[in-house]
Backbone:
């Protein structure tokens, strides 16, 4: 089955196989139950399409954004990365090392990043794959733009399975928000690869809307 288009105010995006791979790894590392993982997946795509930072400005693929935002799968936070290797401020400072680069965290990051995809637990893999196909409804009634452990957010945001998901009123930088929401299409698309996704996303949103309308009319007159 084809993957869906997640449509934001300025562009749409179809998750590739590589996107799904890294999303599954993030879900594995960021949450421990179904509800929490679904919330993380939807928050990722909303931040990706509704927050005007470098991933949106420079047209990053989704997996690159997820790696940068999700600490368990960010290569910079591995034991050989720039954050936790000898010579870094987080490693050389004993207090920071115990907080950000302790042995438990490093082992978890190794596991999330290096485990072959087929050996990742079934639930995060199945959620990531179903999410990419557009089969998982958005659990939020309003956009959320970021998430972290609730102790990090100071309790701000919508609490789901130990994480707090930040709404507009919870953000420090509100100027980066792109007004609007993320929507799923009402029609299927052929399965795409990373190369063809970029070409598809150059199609203006108005053309996509016209295509959807045409498909709907064709279904009615058949």
Residues:
């Amino acid at each position: 089955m084809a993957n869906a288009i997640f449509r934001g105010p300025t562009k749409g995006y179809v998750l590739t196989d590589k996107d799904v791979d890294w999303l599954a790894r993030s879900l594995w590392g960021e949450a421990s139950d179904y509800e929490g993982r679904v919330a993380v997946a939807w928050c990722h795509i909303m931040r990706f399409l509704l927050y005007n930072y470098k991933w949106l400005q420079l047209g990053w693929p989704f997996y690159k954004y997820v790696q940068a935002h999700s600490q368990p799968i960010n290569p910079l936070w591995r034991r050989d990365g720039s954050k936790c290797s000898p010579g870094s401020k987080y490693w050389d400072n004993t207090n920071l090392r115990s907080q950000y680069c302790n042995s438990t965290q490093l082992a978890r990051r190794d596991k999330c990043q290096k485990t072959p995809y087929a050996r990742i637990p079934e639930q995060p893999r199945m959620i990531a794959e179903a999410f990419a196909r557009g089969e998982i409804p958005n659990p939020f009634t309003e956009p959320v733009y970021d998430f972290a452990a609730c102790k990090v957010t100071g309790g701000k945001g919508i609490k789901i399975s130990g994480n707090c998901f930040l709404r507009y009123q919870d953000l420090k930088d509100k100027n980066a928000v792109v007004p609007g929401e993320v929507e799923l299409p009402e029609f299927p698309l052929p399965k795409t690869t990373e190369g063809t996704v970029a070409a598809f996303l150059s199609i203006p949103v108005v053309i996509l809307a016209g295509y959807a309308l045409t498909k709907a009319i064709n279904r009615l007159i058949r």
